[in-house]
């Protein structure tokens, strides 16, 4: 709801490629499925742009739902928000509960933010974004007369 082609136009191929690299290579969880609900009619055009950067395994777990009812075989209604026909409460209620939970655990979260890795103990040479994504964005504009 509210997504237009203008939103998609703001995404660069580079941004999409970096996001998919993170999703497929660096995210520390194993995905069982990706479900997009209330997809817009032009989703096929968006997928044509990003398919070259997606692994076959990711394409296999990607599910597009034009209406919430097609999501029910995958996710129990008790786990879905009210706006998707579920029983878990409205999105606003869940946001308020989450925000209150963050406030209640503020001290713990501040302490957690101070935890850092000792990079001197990490084996191997550190990888930077240039090694992964190339030299993109490092070129100056040339004015040719």
TrEMBL record:
Protein name per the record: Alpha-tocopherol transfer protein
Classification lineage: Eukaryota, Metazoa, Ecdysozoa, Arthropoda, Hexapoda
Domain CRAL-TRIO: 1-92
CDD domains per the UniProt record, alphabetical: SEC14 (cd00170)
Cellular component, GO annotation: membrane
Highest taxon listed in the record's lineage: Eukaryota
Pfam families in the record: CRAL_TRIO
Transmembrane segments: none
MF terms (GO), sorted A to Z: phosphatidylinositol bisphosphate binding
Species in which this protein is naturally found: Culex pipiens
